[in-house]
Amino acid sequence: MLAYVGAYSFLYGFTQWLEESRGLNASSAGLLLLPLSLAAVLVTAATGRSALIRGKLLAGCLFLVMAAAAQLLVGPSTPIWLLAVVGVIAGVPQGLNNLANQTALYQQADPARIGSSAGLLRTCVYVGALISAAANAHFFQHGATTAGLHAMGIFLLVVSGLLVLVVVGSIEHGWTA
C-alpha cells in the first residue's frame, strides 16, 4: 500500500503542480509525464523476466525516496528537461514496485486462494490511490502551489522511508522470495 501511496501521490500532485504553478497546459503536462511512463515500462521490460523480488522492491523504494527528494528541489522556474528527469526518477519505482508486488503475489499466494490474494493486492492499490487523493486535497487545499508540492514531498519522504523499513525488515525476516 505504501508503494501505491507514493506512486499516486507523485503522479497526481506533480501533474496538478505542473499545470497550476509551472503554468503548463494540460497537454504539455501530459507530455511531460511521458518520461515517467516510459521509465516505468522500460524498467518493467528489463526486469520482468526475473522472478527475484527483494532487489526490485529495495531498488523501487530507494528510487521512491529519490523521487520524493527531487520533488523538494523543483520550483516554477525549474527547466523542463530537469522536470522530465524528475519524472524518470519517479517512473523507476512505479515499474519496479508494481512488478515486484505482483511477482510476490503469484509466488507466495496459495494457488487455491490466488483470486482473493489478487483482490487484496488490488485493494491495496485502491487504498493507496485514495490516501494519495486525500493527501493532494490536504497539501493543495489552496491550489497546487510550490509550497504545497514541497510539503507533499516531505509526506512522500515519510511514506517512502516507511516503505524502506518495511522492505528491509521483510528481507531480513525472509518474508519475500
Description:
With 177 residues, this protein is an all-alpha fold. The chain is 79% helix and 0% strand. It has 7 helices and no strands. α1 (2-20) packs antiparallel against α5 and α1 (2-20) runs antiparallel to α7 (146-172). The longest helix has 29 residues, at 80-108. The protein is globular and about 50 Å long.
Keywords:
177 residues; mainly alpha
Largest sheet: none
Fraction of helical residues: over 70%
Total number of beta strands: 0
Number of helices: 7
Described by the principal axes of the CA atoms, the overall outline is globular
Task: Identify low-pLDDT runs.
Answer: none
Instruction: Give the class from helix and strand content and strand pairing.
Output: mainly alpha
First-to-last CA distance: 19 Å
Instruction: Return the average pLDDT rounded to an integer.
Output: 92
**What Rg do the Cα atoms give?**
16 Å
- Tell me the fraction of residues in β-strands, as a range: under 5%
Q: What sequence of helices (H) and strands (E) makes up the elements?
A: HHHHHHH
Give the SSE layout.
Elements: H1 2-20, H2 26-32, H3 34-47, H4 54-71, H5 80-108, H6 114-139, H7 146-172
Helix pairs in contact: 1-2, 1-4, 1-5, 1-6, 1-7, 3-5, 4-5, 4-7, 5-6
